[in-house]
Amino acid sequence: MNFFQAIILGIVQALTEYLPVSSSAHIRIFGDLMLGSDPGAAFTAIIQIGTELAVILYFRHDIINILTHWFSCLFGKNGKDWKARMGRGDNYATLGWNIIVGSIPIIILGFTLQNVIETSLRNLWITVTVLLVFGILLWMVDAKARQNKTMNDMTYRDAFLFGLGQSMALIPGVSRSGGTITVGRALGYTREAAVRLSFLMAIPAVFGSGLYKLKDIGDSSVAWGPTIVATVLAFFVGYAVIAWLIRYVSTHNFTIFVVYRLALAAVVAGLILTGVLAA
User: pTM of the prediction?
Assistant: First the structure.
């Protein structure tokens, strides 16, 4: 991979990471078109660190509040009141615990299914299928679901279900944000709350995955120089995409993303059938 290819992939990653269209699918597809082969799960995981740094910068006030309140409740002067230590009555501390609970499914599945994730699940026919299926699912859920829950209404049960939705993104084509947003809307969360929660839930999982994959830098087609360039670009472009998406969902539904997913699935299927892409 050269620097020009890394720049393109970094921009693609940033433009698609937060939208419910699957950044890993786009990296898989564009990588195959430009490189003639899959860039690999390691490259994808590492450049996602750039987009997650953009999340941290954008939500820095929320993150600081979550961390300070969580530590204050857990290690503060609460005596033997374990409910207070678990954040009872403190929305930020409770959100911190919910993020921890929501991270459990992807941690377990990410480690236990690592070999499958990096090989079989990156087949483009699987990507086409889940682009279609989860696109239709998002459309149906978003059209019918209530909008009466906010971030402060999250329970441990909801957090775990959010985590299951996020873990589905281990399959390229599902979309990390798409999975969590779909679950959030199905549970009755507002569009903006579902999007914000998808961002915050992703931080531990994406950073953990990216840092774990750093050991693969230098192996095969993954090299320090191009990967760093792609990661830095993903940060700057990603920040702009976050700001846009938060504004967009406050007044719009997710139909535009559903249409895009269906169109992308059709295009990729056509490219596979004509031999332009190898599944």
Answer: 0.83
Q: Which of 44, 31, 29 is nearest to 5 (CA)?
A: 31
For residue 105, give both structure tokens.
């499914």
DSSP character string of 93-146: HHHHHHHHHHHHHHHHHHHHTHHHHHTGGG-HHHHHHHHHHHHHHHHHHHHH--
User: In sequence order, what are the residues at sequence separation of 6 or more whose Cβ sits closer than 8 angstroms to the Cβ of residue 175?
Assistant: 19, 20, 21, 22, 23, 25, 134, 169
Per residue in 196-252, pLDDT (tens digit) is: 999 898 888 777 766 666 665 555 555 678 888 888 888 999 999 999 999 999 889
Q: Nearest 5°: phi and psi at 189? A: -75, 150
For residues 191 and 20, give the distance between their C-alpha atoms in angstroms, rounded to a whole number: 12
Distance CA 142, CA 253 (A): 7
